[in-house]
């Protein structure tokens, strides 16, 4: 009886560890996704003149431009591939 109870408790611990790993991984992925979305929103706020949003004052934009280089390149690439879904698919698969 004691051995069966001990085996049951060990099984619960093992399952709890698996559940804990899975939820931690999901939490990390969710936070990374949210961080990416916040960076995209920040990029739109700073470089919003590309899509017609009111732009911040020029001095702020120029001060943030070195930090925004990656977002600037990403936005230019998205503008280039906006009407070409095949090129977008190739860029996702990193074929060329």
Account of the 3D structure:
The protein is built from four helices and no strands. The protein is mainly alpha-helical and 96 residues long. The chain has one domain (2-93).
The number of distinct helices, counting runs of at least 4 residues, comes to 4
Number of domains: 1
Order of helices and strands: HHHH
Beta-strand percentage range:
under 5%
Termini gap: 64 Å
**Which oligomerization state do the chains in this entry correspond to?**
single chain
Mean pLDDT: 79
Described by the principal axes of the CA atoms, the overall outline is elongated
Low-confidence stretches: none
Query: Mind describing the biggest β-sheet?
Result: none
Q: Could you estimate the helical fraction of the residues in percent?
A: over 70%
- Structural class designation: mainly alpha
Q: How many β-strands, per DSSP? A: 0
Q: Could you tell me the radius of gyration in angstroms?
A: 23 Å
């Amino acid at each position: 009886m004691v051995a069966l109870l001990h085996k049951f408790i060990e099984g619960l611990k093992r399952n709890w560890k698996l559940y804990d790993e899975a939820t931690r991984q999901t939490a990390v992925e969710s936070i990374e996704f949210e961080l990416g979305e916040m960076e995209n929103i920040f990029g739109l706020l700073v470089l919003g003149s590309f899509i017609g949003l009111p732009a911040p004052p020029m001095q702020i934009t120029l001060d943030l431009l070195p930090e925004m280089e990656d977002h600037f390149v990403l936005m230019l690439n998205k503008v280039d591939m906006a009407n070409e879904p095949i090129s977008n698919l190739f860029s996702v698969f990193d074929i060329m």
